[in-house]
């Protein structure tokens, strides 16, 4: 739990949010103007009581209130009676005020929504843009559900604070100011009673805000968990059923949702209790007010109409003060969410210290004493690797599960930097190459194949900036041995793949991913083979696609199949983060070692 020393950082937070609002400065000012008009008109409608009552009672002085004064100034009474005059002036004033108030309401609300929606849009796109650009380490610490929840739930919380809360605060804040100004205008001494209770009300609001923020943070975290579990469970549909885990999964979800419920209830409790407290404080002020107002001395300064108008204004203060305390929960939820989003936005992006540009590499790779441990892990995943891969060769990496094969790829992708040693491409340390230039040199098919919920065409052409014609896509599919099954799909290239390519077989998914890598046409092709057993036909198809894709490129394959390994120019045997042997199939079989025993076990899968 964070320490509650927020005063300073709160201001920083407000200021930062304000910079977002400032982006829509024009709309914001219009909105404020609208609410000023709205609250002013509201007060003047109360002031109309004075006009009406004093005209009715034929008071000695009628033009005491604001409306009556303006009316008498615009349209002198002449020789009409006060009653005849008021009969025309009061209805006209009432209707005119209603129009003005309506215009103010519209301006205030609509333009505030322009601001709020704009702020949310900017925040959401900023968080998204940062999320897809941060280094892997920054992503690794969150579950996918938490990240999704930040983009959806947290952003909506900020939107609530920006639209509803800001509107309420402006509208009701200005109404309070207008009412108090009016009361000061009618009788300033009596109004001072209200200032006496201001600290008490402020105290209530502050105490309540602190609780609101704390519970809001917890609600936010638990929403992350709820989203994560929902996400996970949707993807683990098959596993949950077949491992009879429905009960277990229900219980986990129930616990997460329960925590959320309890925190929300605590928030609701504070909210429900804060408004009555504020109202009671206000009631004391009203009591004192009545007591003073009925004092004969003070009474002498009032006409009947102005006394009623004063009391009407004082009682009208109740509602905006109530909504102002109430809206604190929304504000605090928004601030807690904004705090979290700003942390995301401030995450440093992936660093690119490279300065050397490179258009197309030949594809020679060198590992020079490379060691690496994942952040927070003591065991090195890679330990002092030395390896030279000539351009254009086909290299197979084999080794038991956990040997460090995928980790090696992660370093090659520059997702992580080695702790020691260097990796060189065409003689350049890869860290010195410009990141975008460098990544263009690699086409990777990852172990977990990700397809997007989009057409086959978009999946194959993923990331290509120029317009790709169908001929090029078919050519890539051809190389990947995927053309046949794609053409057999109901709408060919236009077939939309359901969530993650759910409608395809494992082999088909892999061949689509290979086609994507082929289309990228990079000098280095990396394939982290899935271990899943494929039927003979898919296996043969993938093998053929690999052969075709590998020609003319440096190809690195993490192999789980003998058929792949036998073709390799060089086989690298890895164990516990180290390279234990290198050679071709015949050489490695000739010596007693890990390779032979892996071979005898048939590698993995086939
Ligand atoms: N993100 C990570 N954070 C911490 N440790 C990791 C991470 N990914 C992998 N490891 C660890 O690093 C070691 C090497 O894992 P790696 O994924 O490279 O193995 P692999 O050879 O690809 O295995 P497989 O054949 O099963 O895919 C393992 O001990 C693993 O537990
Ligand atoms: Mg792996």
Write a structural description.
This protein is of the alpha/beta class and 606 residues long. It folds into 2 domains: 21-345, ABC transporter transmembrane region fold, CATH 1.20.1560.10; 365-600, Rossmann fold (3-Layer(aba) Sandwich). It is built from 23 helices and 10 strands. The chain has helices at 7-22, 25-56, 66-74, 82-131, 136-140, 144-186, 188-235, 237-242, 246-293, 296-299, 304-316, 318-326, 328-345, 405-412, 435-440, 456-460, 470-479, 483-488, 506-520, 536-550, 562-567, 585-590, 594-600, and strands spanning 365-372, 382-389, 394-399, 420-425, 428-429, 442-445, 524-528, 554-558, 570-575, 578-583. A hairpin with a 2-residue loop joins strand 9 (570-575) and strand 10. It is elongated and about 120 Å long. Residues 1-7 have low confidence and may be disordered. It binds adenosine-5'-triphosphate (ATP) and magnesium ion. The site of magnesium ion (MG) has 4 residues, from helix 14.
Please, what is the oligomeric state?
Answer: single chain
In angstroms, what is the radius of gyration? 36 Å
Task: Return the structural class.
Answer: alpha/beta
CATH class designation of the largest domain = Mainly Alpha
CATH architecture of the largest domain: Up-down Bundle
CATH homologous superfamily grouping of the largest domain: ABC transporter type 1, transmembrane domain
| CATH topology descriptor of the largest domain | ABC transporter transmembrane region fold
Bound compounds, please? adenosine-5'-triphosphate, magnesium ion
Q: How many structural domains in the coordinates?
A: 2
Biggest sheet architecture: 6 strands, mixed
Overall spatial form: elongated
* Residues in helix, %: 55-70%
Strand order of the largest sheet: 6-7-8-3-9-10
* Spans of at least 5 consecutive residues with low confidence: 1-7
User: Could you tell me the number of beta strands?
Assistant: 10
Total number of helices: 23
What distance lies between the first and last C-alpha atoms, to the nearest angstrom?
A: 51 Å
Portion of residues in beta strands equals 5-15%
Mean pLDDT: 86
